[in-house]
Amino acid sequence: MEKLARKQVxxxxxxxxxxxxxxxxxxxxxxxxxxxxxxxxxxVSQLNRYSDCQPATLIDAYAEYAGVSSEQVLxxxxxxxxxELLIRAFCEAGxxxxxxxxPTYGMYAISAETFGVERKTVPLTSDWQLxxxxxxxxxxxxxxxxxxxxxxxxxxxxxxxxxxTLLEMTQDRAIVVIDxxxxxxxxxxxxxxxxxxxxxxxxxxxxxKAFALAGLxxxxxxxxxxxxxxxxxxxxxxxxxxxxxxxxxxxxxxxGLARQKYQVLEITVNRxxxxxxxxxxxxxxxxxxxxxxxLVQFPDGDALFKAAWDAGIILRNSPIxxxxxxxxxxxxxCEKTVTFIRNFYQA
Length: 347
Ligand SMILES: *Cc1c(COP(=O)(O)O)cnc(C)c1O
Known about the structure:
transferase; EC 2.6.1.9; amino-acid biosynthesis; Histidinol-phosphate aminotransferase
């Protein structure tokens, strides 16, 4: 069967998501999921009918939350589908390239590879910021530049001035995508206001993290109306299932937003607890993080990761040397994790 597949597909290794890696335990801090399992009641009827391609209730609700107009919002099956749509809409297979800055989120590379689009990488600087001169020197053939802020897995926010410089540099040449999957934890750092100035800016958002709806698969792309119109040409005819719209609209209601705000605060407190608790352990470096996770460096990251795994504490190993990414889960999960790691280094 493999031989029948496209050559590019044969060569592909699927994205090793936290879920695919598996694990067994009662502390799940490996996928940056929310610890809150909020309840929803389905109110929909008429499942015999197709959904709207871009349901107005959902688009309007997210536009209001993000502070943009409805023509600037596209909804899709998670932010991951937004990544795919941007590459498919703007990159010619075999000719064009995307550019991204590792260490960062893995799906930019996987999506490009799937569509036969070349991948150019310009590593982040030593303080995990954009290397603008190197990006500028590598823009040949690049149609889409991906920037993740807060960056997964390092947790830091990209300098706003650098993003503006990047937008200036790429004008009339390439699309700049700012992946703001975690921006709800630090809304003051959003680049959404730059949409008014830069028609080639696209911002990715999701309900998977701060809205505690990873299983719903609902994301958004914010951009100029012209850019959104291009994406609408390549999106599937019925991308958002009716029950998804129903629940997403509840999450974005006044009550839903109030609950989200409260839970974001709680998770931020738990992140601070993790940071404080782990920082006190000799040899452990906790990097400042603005999402719902922290990148932590241990004397031996692999050993710590494996020992935690065996103890039923599932963390995420990272490409950074001795780095382990730890989600800010419930207070109980964070306490168990800090206790385990403290004991691990004191035994
Ligand atoms: C989780 C994540 C996404 C994917 O979000 P979905 O809406 O669940 O597809 C995109 N980008 C980054 C950086 C993420 O961490």
